[in-house]
Amino acid sequence: TQLLEQSPQFLSIQEGENLTVYCNSSSVFSSLQWYRQEPGEGPVLLVTVVTGGEVKKLKRLTFQFGDARKDSSLHITAAQPGDTGLYLCAGALVESGAGSYQLTFGKGTKLSVIP
Amino acid sequence: DADVTQTPRNRITKTGKRIMLECSQTKGHDRMYWYRQDPGLGLRLIYYSFDVKDINKGEISDGYSVSRQAQAKFSLSLESAIPNQTALYFCATSEGLAGSEQYFGPGTRLTVT
């Protein structure tokens, strides 16, 4: 069972369109991160959200952490070809001890923005 | 220069061979991690280390071993490679706070034939 479910798995849209990708779980996370990975490279952090209901904006990207800290969404406004990549969410579980230092990753959403 | 480097970047090996993947970091972080990435399965944690004397198994440690030679170096070994270990392998580092950002290396593409 995947702890973090990301949807959709694949998304292909035209330049200029808006989109939302989701990251859902039945577990509570102390924090949740979004990474973007481009082909041939490692994931790079976009944002970390830590408070239930928190909303963070990064230019055309808007990230939201669910009130119960079990889910998150990433909304991209007016997508551009440069947004193409694999978007991964990763959460730090609310656990005591060493487990809280681990990140659990979703399988990712592969986004293609067509010019 | 990259903060997290991995060698080799690509490797093709045969079943049964021993292979070592190396990771070095200049970020000064104590925590280091090894992941593998497979299409459709995402990133899965193999091993992690909180410092030179602390090594912990992750989700999928069977068939792998690690060595933390120094704060800056963390190696992953496959003692006897098998085809289902064909994957993209990433090393990552982080600071000491729970849920800290992880900084990833560029990855090693390993193919076991």
* Number of alpha- plus pi-helical segments of chain A: 0
Shape of chain B: globular
Low-confidence runs of at least 5 consecutive residues of chain A: none
Q: Topology as H/E string of chain A?
A: EEEEEEEEEEE
Q: Provide the structure class of chain A.
A: mainly beta
Strand content of chain B: over 45%
Q: How much β-strand is present in the residues of chain A?
A: over 45%
Largest interface: A-B, 25 and 26 residues
Structural class of the helix and strand makeup of chain B?
A: mainly beta
**Helix content estimate of chain A:** under 10%
Are there runs of chain B of 5+ residues with pLDDT below 50, and where? Answer: none
Largest sheet of chain A, described in full?
6 strands, mixed
Mean pLDDT of chain A: 91
Number of helices of chain B: 0
Please describe the structure with a list of short key phrases separated by commas or semicolons.
heterodimer; A: six-stranded mixed sheet; five-stranded antiparallel sheet; 11 strands; 0% helix; globular; B: 113 residues; mainly beta; four-stranded antiparallel sheet; 58% strand
Note down, in words, how this protein is organized.
The complex is a heterodimer of chains A (115) and B (113). Chain A is built from no helices and eleven strands. Chain A is mainly β and 115 residues long. Helix content of chain B is 0%, strand content 58%. Chain B contains no helices and eleven strands. In chain B, strands 2, 4, 5, 6, 9, 10 and 11 form a seven-stranded mixed beta sheet that branches. Chain B is globular, with a radius of gyration of 13 Å. The model of chain B has no long low-confidence stretch (mean pLDDT 93). The chains are: A mainly beta (115), B mainly beta (113). Chains A and B meet through strand 4, strand 5 and strand 9 of A and strand 5, strand 9 and strand 10 of B.
